[in-house]
Automatic annotation (TrEMBL):
SMART domains: Resolvase (SM00857)
Recombinase domain sequence ranges: 172-283
InterPro entries found in the cross-reference section: DNA_bind_recomb_sf, DNA_bind_recombinase_dom, Resolv_N, Resolvase-like_N_sf, SSR_resolvase
Organism: Saccharopolyspora phatthalungensis
Pfam assignment, any one: Resolvase
GO molecular function terms noted in the UniProt entry: DNA binding; DNA strand exchange activity
Name used for this protein in its record: DNA invertase Pin-like site-specific DNA recombinase
């Protein structure tokens, strides 16, 4: 008489998500159940999950199968091989307990089946368990060594497809047909998106605004999602891969040059990292998703020198309408209508752009070349210190002390290089045929970039109204409430 059976299938690596391996295992296991006259009660499937001592992923269906066996829902477990069930000696002991206490039987398609209720069967199981564990560790060591060699050669070592670069393409039989291009060949339209996003961030646009554009473009994320989120975009824009640097477990490998072509320049890379990895920038106007007014957290209160914020205020009197206003963050010093203040600032910026145009961007000086040379020399010095530590010529304490000093200096050089790239805030606007028109066009210059341009060209301070005068919105003149001070050209 047949027994109630549970079929367990698993494959360790299924990067494409096709589940072809587990489907084949299931088919063969069902043939065994039919041959034995058993009834398949349930299918337990852990796809793309390892079962060795090195694997950290949980196996939910394996645990569910053990629970069902203990409760008598299934009396037999069929798997393709004993190694499909587990490669961990401790879990083999759990299977022996199932057999001894609950009478559970185990049957395999492509490896010997044995009775765990006998001492001979348990001996064979434990020998196979040790062999499976050793084989898994041999594979792990070999893979790690291969990855280290690939890193030394500057090759991509796998993982999720990096946005901007080619992923795997398979034929109808599941074979990879572009192995030499995976992670190496650039996808032109995705690379162009990265280049554009880097320039937008440097120009003052927020990640949220860029994500909205990318979502509307219809280009999916590397994992196939239609929706782009700032955290995903940020990881793409700040990754060392964009300039051909090797990174492993979050650490940039000094001296290892990748074989894939870069997407952006080193100056752009350091500039965008300085913006996106700086906590101060993340809390100011550059990263906000809800900004609608030019001066929010940009204009300064003339009383307390704190930043102004926008707020909705009702006009006084019958029939009064709501209007946007700027208020001191303390809410006590002053409040002023937003529209006329922004109009004054816009007029100032447009006039300066029209008068000076591309001269505001400035001409890059030759110091950048010297800074790059200095940065390379500092990186070389860190490599030299690492060699001295490895050869025992330097204690770890001395190594860390000297390396930290060099890293501090290197951070300063990179910050200087990044500041030279932020002149792109005005690029495309100040050098346009009609810069004022481009500045005022919301399609060409989003609010985030307008604010960055204002911040680059001037400081705006709001003064308190004088006592005894009519409110400015009744007098119709706000010019004596605004102080605009010019900043030097970028």
């Amino acid at each position: 008489m047949g027994k109630p059976v549970g079929i367990y299938v698993r494959i360790s690596d299924d990067r494409e998500g096709r589940e072809l391996g587990v489907e084949r295992q299931e088919e063969d296991c069902r043939k065994v159940a039919v041959r034995e006259g058993d009834t398949v009660v349930d299918l337990y499937k852990d796809n793309d999950i390892g079962a060795s001592t090195r694997s950290k992923k949980p196996r939910p269906d394996y645990k569910r199968m053990l629970a069902d066996a203990k409760h008598g829902r299934i009396h037999k477990i069929i798997a393709y091989t004993s190694g499909r069930l587990t490669r961990r000696p401790r879990e083999h002991e759990g299977q022996i307990e199932l057999a001894e206490r609950y009478g559970t039987e185990f049957q395999y398609v492509a490896s010997p089946s044995f009775d765990l209720n006998t001492s001979a069967g348990r001996r064979i199981a434990r020998i196979l368990a040790a062999n499976d564990a050793g084989e898994a560790e041999d594979i792990s060591e070999r893979v790690c060594r291969e990855k280290q060699q690939a890193l030394a050669r500057g090759e991509w070592i796998g993982g999720a497809r990096p946005f901007g670069y080619q992923g795997t393409i398979r034929d109808a039989y599941g074979n990879v047909i572009n192995r030499e291009d995976v992670g190496i060949k650039i996808i032109e339209h995705e690379a162009a998106m990265i280049q554009d996003a880097v320039q937008r961030v440097i120009s003052g646009e927020s990640l949220y605004a860029i994500c909205e554009k990318w979502t509307h473009s219809g280009v999916p994320t590397p994992r196939g999602s239609k929706r782009w989120y700032p955290a995903t975009l940020k990881r793409i824009l700040v990754r060392p891969r964009n300039i051909g640097l090797m990174e492993h477990r979050g650490v940039v490998l000094e001296g290892a040059k990748a074989i894939w072509p870069p997407i952006i320049t080193e100056d752009e890379y350091h500039a965008v990292r300085a913006i996106l990895l700086d906590n101060e920038h993340r809390t100011t106007y550059r990263g906000s998703r809800s900004l609608k007014w030019l001066g929010t957290n940009l204009y300064t209160c003339g009383v307390c020198q704190d930043l102004m914020r926008s707020a909705g205020i009702s006009s006084q009197g019958a029939g009064g309408e709501n209007h946007a206003a700027y208020r001191c963050k303390h809410g006590l010093h002053l409040s002023v209508r937003a529209d006329p203040i922004d109009a004054i600032v816009n007029t100032y910026v447009c006039a300066r752009l029209a008068k000076h145009g591309a001269d505001l961007i400035g001409v890059p000086d030759g110091d950048a070349v010297d800074l790059h040379t200095e940065a390379n020399a500092l990186r070389a010095r860190i490599t030299e210190l690492e060699d001295m530590l490895g050869e025992g010529e330097l204690s770890r304490t001395a190594f860390l002390r000297q390396r930290n000093k060099i890293i501090t200096k290197l951070d300063g050089v990179n910050a200087d290089l990044a500041s030279r790239s932020t002149g792109s805030v005005l690029s495309g606007v100040a050098d346009a045929p009609n810069p004022a028109e481009v500045f005022m066009n919301p399609e060409l210059t989003p609010i985030e970039r307008k604010r960055a341009i204002v911040d680059a060209l001037c400081t705006v301070t709001i003064l308190k109204g004088r006592k005894g005068r009519k409110p400015a919105h009744l007098a119709g003149d706000y010019r004596d409430r605004v102080v605009i001070k010019k900043k030097d050209a970028v």
